[in-house]
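hey can u run this one w/ magnesium ion bound, need the structure tokens asap thx
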Amino acid sequence: MMQSWSQRALMVTGKGGVGKTSLSAALARALAEQGHRVLVAEVGSDADEPSPLIRALGGKRPRDSGVRPVLPNLEAVRLMPYAGQQAFLRDTLRVKLLVDAALRLAAIRRFLSAAPAFNELGVLYQLFQLMRERRPDGHPRFERVIVDTPATGHALAIAQLPDIVLRLIPGGPIGTVTREGLAILRDPAQTASIVVTLPEALPITESIELIEGFRQNKTPVVEVWVNRMPLNPFEGRPEAERAALALAATQAPPFWGAQTLQRLARAQDALGALRAQTSLPIRVFPEKLLEDPALSAALSKDVAKSDDDRAVPPSKTN
Ligand SMILES: Nc1ncnc2c1ncn2[C@@H]1O[C@H](COP(=O)(O)OP(=O)(O)OP(=O)(O)O)[C@@H](O)[C@H]1O
Ligand SMILES: [Mg+2]
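ok here u go:
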């Protein structure tokens, strides 16, 4: 068992630069290697922009907004608000020509993007559609869906979306279609979030606030992932030796390696603070001296480690 959750859709969230994309790619790879049919999604506004997710996975840049295979069992997609809004309006209004014409009008587009959560709705609608797709044998096209969410604010907006949308659209065909999709996201048995953070004081504080935000939105967070834990150069050395070194790092005049030890001590303090403030399961991923796509490949091995292995502090795999 590599995980303590069973939800089909996982939102990987956290502040900018903490490793959401790297760990989304790693998680998607790990699940695909275990034989699940996996979709990994990123969110973007422009099909022509480079894709950090595809880069992390080592694939070629997608040409369009479609789903593209990247590795065995693993396909990737870029969800874009505009494409999703178009699909949403087409499906709900069923007058394709009118919708296309309307969306071409800048004034209407401006109006729609200013509407609360309309961009998130576009993104999510695309996601629902993909999650609803079935193979000829009746099984879902994608068994697991990983979403690399762009930023904390966005993730919370998604969590709040159901209420906002249902308030905007009380009934009728749009309400029905939306409700079906949003039910997936609101269902703790089907959708959950993973909060990614770094072992530093401020990111830890921010992740605690994010977890609280999710709690208020009744969006389940299944695990907190602490990424880029510094390597412990004395891993596996006798305890007495490590204690002596730790003491030396605080008392002796600066010596070679003192910074490394201090950084490690700060990271361990930050991790301790996190443990004290949440009862969620915490997983720690080491700092790797690797770059894409070797980075996500190495991290996917860590993601796939069993619960028992998790007790062992990470290291050595670099
Ligand atoms: N465990 C790790 N070890 C070493 N480098 C890492 C690790 N995780 C991520 N990185 C590097 O840190 C940088 C940021 O990672 P990533 O792009 O995954 O973060 P992000 O949260 O998706 O950022 P953004 O908010 O900008 O989308 C990248 O250069 C990535 O290669
Ligand atoms: Mg990213």
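The radius of gyration is 22 Å. anyway lmk if its weird
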